[in-house]
Amino acid sequence: MLFSRFHSILLLAAVIANVDTDRTVTNTFSEKKKVDNKESCKLDDSTESKWWNGPPSCVTTGVTSSVHKVSSQMLPSGLFDRYAVTGQPLHILDASALSENFHIAGWTCEKFATEFPEATMYTEYSIVSKLGELVESTLSFIFGGSNIDDFPSESYPVLNWIIRSVNEISMGDHSWTYSTVEQAPPVKMKAQQGTSDSPRFGPYYWDPVKSEGRKQPESVASKLRRLVSPLNFMRQSSRNIQDVHNTMEFWFAPVNGSGALGHMDPHCDTTLSIQLSGEKRWRLGFPPLRIPVSPDDRESEDWTGDGQYVEFAQPGSASWVPAFEVTVHAGEALLFPMGMIHETLNTAPSSCSASITVQFGDPLPARFYRHFLPQLTRTGSLIRCWDYIESIATLSTVPAQLLKGPHLQRACEDTSSDVFRAIDRDSNNGICTAEVVAYIEQRRASFELSQDVLAEAVINYHDDDENAIVTEEEFSRGYCEWVANEIAIKNAFYE
Fold this sequence. Notes:
alpha+beta; three-stranded antiparallel β-sheet; elongated; 36% helix
């Protein structure tokens, strides 16, 4: 079955059988800060091949799978949502041309320079940008802030100039749109952080809405919100409209060979990238199951940054072996889940390539959360997603003592049964989205997710046979898998 969950079920069975699996994990990973490739591969999910329809991440042949390709005109109702829920990549042809509320289809780098001359973007991977990151991280440590906006206000003008201004590129300066190889920003990073066919030149990055302290004129964001809306095959819900408007970011790859080095973003939602002009090669892969050696290591990892994943290349290989490779052309889009390592490369012969990337959370990738629970909850850069997953898997009902008790099987089944029966209002041994919504309202619990989005995610997470109804057995299985996984993590750290 598609939803075989090797690691979670193994953890649960081990605890039930009183096998000291958790202590073995602790011993294995406490001896070294970074897990070597061989050890990491032992822990990779053996069902990845079936899930991705491609090789598991420990395959060393270098073979990559093609992403499923479909025309937006031929997308059956619900198919896009299904890919989003399961977290399987999808290559969508003629994605933007047929979306009447998406008004930037076909825009070139030159068009952006003309339409937004007052905007400012930034160069990735340059010496200056790396210096800026070092200065900002140092100041963040000193002042306890997470970004430039958190620093003392009296210091802001100076710090802002040091960190940002020296790396700013005016979008209205049209010269960047016709850069040559000699003019393109080279990737100023260690050689081992890239592979022989990784990007040689950095892209320009524009985050007009988020900006992280680099605020654009309000007129820029307002204009973009009028130009950009969810594409036709996406749900036109208030959640998605808000997500698209708040997460849009633009990437401009000035020459052939420029792009973003392999990295993982800390998003909890699904990503959709629309190629506006030119073309871009994507390589995608899922990170190995790494068990950090301490809570601090779990929550502040540094191996998912740009170009660093190559340090965890497959055994016997000098470079990253991704699970997928696909070239996306102008007017096409690529859907892929959170938590994926991804690398891009401008493959257009002689033109600047422009693309927009957004995240959306309706629907959430609930089945993806379930299947890759061990990896997601052991990857520090995804820390903000852990509460998401807990609320979906358990509706935040797990008592603290359950995570410490010796009788996991009986105690967990009793707890999950109580929760299930409270949700199952008609006592027919089946819960649906409406019943979950009613339960949330009755509890008056506070969740980060809206009631309807959370309720649908709960059903998708637990619905093993995908019939839109969750039985008590299904609910208990998913609930107790989460508990077993959490106990394994806690034991690895504290026992």
